[in-house]
Amino acid sequence: MAVEREKMYECEVKRRRVKEGGGYEPFWKVKEVAVALSDSDTEFRCKDCFGEVKLLGRNGKAGTIPYVEHKLIADSEFCIGGLLFKKATDGREPKTSAKPVE
User: What does the buried/exposed string (b/e) look like for 43-69 if buried means 16 or more CB atoms within 10 Å of the residue's CB?
Assistant: First the structure.
């Protein structure tokens, strides 16, 4: 029996932009995971709860699409995009990660 995996195909990636007055400042931008990889982005987080995610499916096998899933079960349980949140039947409310990626 196959285990159902949490697969999210969009996430936030950390980017830099020019600050008014000079220098750079970081900001988060929503991207498809496949596009983020082709753009060589390296820092990822969940676009809904801002929690840590792990990058999977990037091995380039034919027919595979790169995706992310939550590193912490608690994030998946209370993130609106999380598999465990979607499966819950207790009427829980979504919330941001207890350990958001800054």
Answer: ebbbbbbbbbbebebeeeeeeeebbbb
